[in-house]
């Protein structure tokens, strides 16, 4: 009885040993294949279906940050620089030489000074503002014709007539005298009529015709009128 039981146990052991050996061999073969190195010429970045898979490439938002390095800042490309537009104005200031000699020049007691300024559309207003500004350093022989502090209150152009409205300073700070009035009239008329659109000029002071005690500017004056009235 014992021999039969021992024989059965030996038989079971042999069967289990026979099954265990192939299983161990298969398991060893599987893991050894998974751990084998990739061949040098194998490139998963080319010709691989995994290369088209976003998970293989990695999501850009979740990719690890690159190593910290000092950023290289490229200089910004300079925009195409356009040359600034300029405007040449003729400003008729007092001709100090003519005043000293007591003799009229080609434009009476004023003479043109060419001043180059940044361009703007409102050229007449710009010219009058520069006239109020007065002569600059380097503009030799030119004298002021409008008092400092004079303001341009309003400016209109109607049928070729420039209607210029100045603040009270134009009279309050005037040097006075008939010659001073002539210089003022010539300065404003010649400066304004350098533009083809302006044929004549009328000056107001706070809405009323300019009057200095010698002259009453009650109607538009042109360059021709200056020649006739002041014997230029």
Brief characterization of the structure:
With 232 residues, the protein is an alpha+beta fold. It is built from 7 helices and 7 strands.
Tell me what you see in this structure:
The chain is of the alpha+beta class. The chain has a domain at 86-230. Helices cover 35% and strands 18% of the residues. The chain has 7 helices and 7 strands, in the order ααβαβαβββααββα. The strands form 2 sheets. The protein has a 4-stranded mixed beta sheet with strand order 4-5-6-7. It has a 3-stranded antiparallel beta sheet with strand order 2-1-3. β4 (152-158) and β5 (161-166) form a beta hairpin. α4 runs antiparallel to α6. The longest helix has 33 residues, at 2-34. Mean pLDDT is 77; it is low at 17-74.
Helical/strand content category: alpha+beta
Number of contiguous helices: 7
Q: Which range does the strand content fall in? A: 15-25%
* Widest beta sheet: strand line-up: 4-5-6-7
The general outline is globular
Q: State the major sheet.
A: 4 strands, mixed
The secondary-structure element order is HHEHEHEEEHHEEH
| Beta strand count | 7
Helix content: 25-40%
Mean pLDDT over all positions: 77
**What is the terminal-to-terminal distance?**
160 Å
Poorly predicted parts: 17-74
Q: How much is the radius of gyration in Å? A: 49 Å
